[in-house]
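Problem 3 from the worked examples.
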Amino acid sequence: MERSHGNFCWNELLTPDVERAKRFYGETIGWTFDAMPMGDGTTYWLAMIGGKPVGGIFPTNRPEYKGVPESWMSYLAVDDVDARVKKALAAGAKLMKPVFDVPNVGQIAVLTEPGGAGVGWMTPV
């Protein structure tokens, strides 16, 4: 995926039923999945084609994600997450959780833009 500023660089499915999603995409698209443990004890799933990650599955079956609808979340590559988040907040966006780092992936912000759509911004490693 393109990782330069302003290009979509990652997609992940937010779902409370990871196993159902893995079965569906495995059977219909041919994805395989690699487990990636997260710091909170849960598992993020990398969707793979030909040994390369093409997307992810994020489990939302936890109390802090109650009410989050099952949906695909897209991430844009940005040159500087912190600077871009300041601009986004000034332009009416809301930061959904503090900016965070994912080792070997990048610095990530999850926002809702002024119209309410969710979008992730990432400064890739």
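Problem 4, a separate protein:
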Amino acid sequence: MRNFNITVNGTAYQVSVEEVGGMPAAPVAAPVAAPVAAPAAAPVAAPAPVAAAPVAAGNTVNSPMPGTILDVRVSEGAAVKKGDVLLILEAMKMENEIMSPADGTVKQVLVGKGASVNSGDVLAVIG
């Protein structure tokens, strides 16, 4: 039997290993220094929550599925008609057109190109 100290994800374990069959192991010199305790893992700070922009009153355009915004086709203040393409959302390797639910003016665009969104996230507001 050989004894080892192993550290996994900051937790130290003492294990005994028995060699079975094969060639006999060469003798190992005794360690000169006493085993050193594993250093304590530094606490990982949680990422600061991103402050959500206040959503203006109006028709909200929500993400139908999680994905990445490939293109933003409108800007705040632009006039849109029902069915106009506002954004392109990539999800499951497909490009999805996110369209305006109503006629109006774009009050807010809450995402930018390259943003990751979840299902139900507000993407824009039409007033």
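Solution to problem 4. The CA atoms of residues 63 and 120 lie 5 Å apart. The chain has no helices and ten strands.
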